[in-house]
Design a protein that fits this description.
By secondary structure, the chain is α+β, with helices and mostly antiparallel strands. The chain has five helices and 14 strands. Strands 2, 3, 4, 5 and 6 form a five-stranded mixed β-sheet that branches. Strands 1-12-9-10 form a four-stranded antiparallel β-sheet, with no helix packed on it.
Length: 220
């Protein structure tokens, strides 16, 4: 994918970009509502304890377990949000009754992504279609964290760690993990090509074929 951008006379301060990135991880808290109380004009929510989400597969497994648990308590699951317990409570209406369940997903759910990676059954999404090129940066518009491999059409573009990541020389940079709606500064350039993967996978075996970057999304 090729994206053009006219170079500016100044450089934004940006994040360091290297070939290694941290594992994608975020806090999660699951929420459910009492439908009977709602019909009576009351607001009663059931909340889990907060837990760490390491991978989209573990998030999906946690949601499945939480739905079964909430249903067994007479609540209707609203899913699991990427928030701490404190932030989740703060976002509820002021007259809400909060029922703290102390529920957490099982180890199998938490490790679902890692176990699938080890067994070779985990398929990571190519995220290139929901990554955008903005002013001297690439931005993650996906609803999941990504790593982005990139190269510049012209020589001597970029700056710092990204300098001279030239496509014709098959020289590529890779961003750290970018959460949704976050961006990574990559310096001054006119045209950039990129290839993105759902984290914790990383772009591997990249090659520039004259019209774009090809590669595979592999677990670290």
């Amino acid at each position: 994918m090729k994206f053009g951008h006219i170079a500016f006379a100044f450089l934004f301060a940006g994040a360091s970009l290297t070939c290694a990135g941290a594992e994608a991880a975020s806090l999660g808290t699951c929420v459910a509502i009492d439908p009977a109380a709602m019909k009576a004009g009351k607001s009663v929510y059931l909340l889990s304890s907060e837990f760490t989400i390491y991978d989209p597969a573990s998030r999906d497994a946690a949601v499945s377990e939480w739905t079964k648990y909430a249903t067994s308590r007479g609540f209707e699951s609203m899913g699991c949000d990427p928030n701490s317990y404190h932030d989740e409570v703060a976002g509820l209406p002021p007259d809400t009754k909060v029922v703290a369940s102390n529920w957490k997903p099982s180890r199998d759910a938490i490790m679902a992504g890692a176990d699938a990676i080890k067994s070779g059954k985990r398929n990571f999404r190519n995220a290139s279609s929901c990554v955008q090129n903005i002013k001297q940066a690439v931005q993650n518009k996906c609803d999941y964290p990504v790593r982005i491999g990139f190269c510049f059409a012209e020589a001597n573009a970029g700056s710092g760690d990204t300098f001279d990541k030239t496509c014709q020389a098959q020289n590529f940079g890779i961003t750290d993990v970018l959460p949704p709606n976050q961006e990574a500064q990559i310096g001054i350039y006119r045209y950039v090509y990129f290839f993105a993967c759902e984290a914790p996978a990383s772009p591997q075996s990249m090659a520039f074929d004259g019209s774009g970057i090809t590669g595979v999304c592999s677990a670290p």
